[in-house]
Design goal:
The protein has four helices and no strands. The chain has 65 residues and is mainly alpha-helical. Helix 1 (6-23) crosses helix 2 and helix 1 crosses helix 4. The longest helix has 18 residues, at 6-23. It starts with 5 loop residues before the first helix and ends with a helix.
Length: 65
Amino acid sequence: MKQVDNRVRFTKAVLHAAILKILETKPIDKVTIKEICEEAGINRGTFYLLYDTPRDLLKEIENEF
């Protein structure tokens, strides 16, 4: 099994928290990558290294449950 770098784990955790916070006020179709990155305090390029769309991020959260 491939071991995940702690930095990647941290980045995914802040992205998960950011999108969940944003989803409290607006639907997924209205969420932008810019909003997620600003809320999480990360670079858009970092987002794109891990996900293609906000839906991909949300799908990963759903799959964890």
